[in-house]
Design brief:
2 domains, mainly alpha
């Protein structure tokens, strides 16, 4: 977890610096908002790792670890026949298109994302 945490923290800090520099040089709000969202997302993941995964014992944190030691490690259960990832991509596309074309489409996409999030939770149980 230490390696991943350093990666996300440094990437988030870099994205913040890039967003500020971009705003100062270009004064263009769309790109600045996207870079700010990138910084927020990376910082959110780092915060999650600090709060929820602080006791994680990952083989990659050991400096002497070899790839063969990770063989057979359970990283999660994944449903291979679920249509939810494709439907989620369509909902995110609606949000993106809605920001450009019509706010109504964006709102419908956001509602679909929340509904799909609930379905992901139910399906993972």
């Amino acid at each position: 977890m230490k390696v991943g945490l350093r990666l996300f923290l440094s990437s988030g800090a870099f994205a913040i610096v890039i967003a500020v520099v971009y705003w100062l040089l270009a004064r263009e709000p769309a790109g600045t908002i996207l870079l700010g969202f990138l910084a927020f997302a990376l910082s959110f993941i780092a915060g999650y790792m600090i709060v929820a995964e602080r006791e994680a014992d990952l083989w990659g944190d050991d400096a002497q670890a070899k790839n063969t030691e990770a063989v057979g490690e359970v990283v999660g259960t994944y449903s291979v026949r679920s249509p939810l990832p494709i439907v989620s991509a369509a909902a995110l596309t609606c949000v993106g298109l809605g920001l450009v074309v019509s706010p109504t489409i964006a709102v419908m996409g956001i509602i679909a994302i929340f509904a799909l999030g609930a379905l992901f939770i139910v399906q993972s149980s």
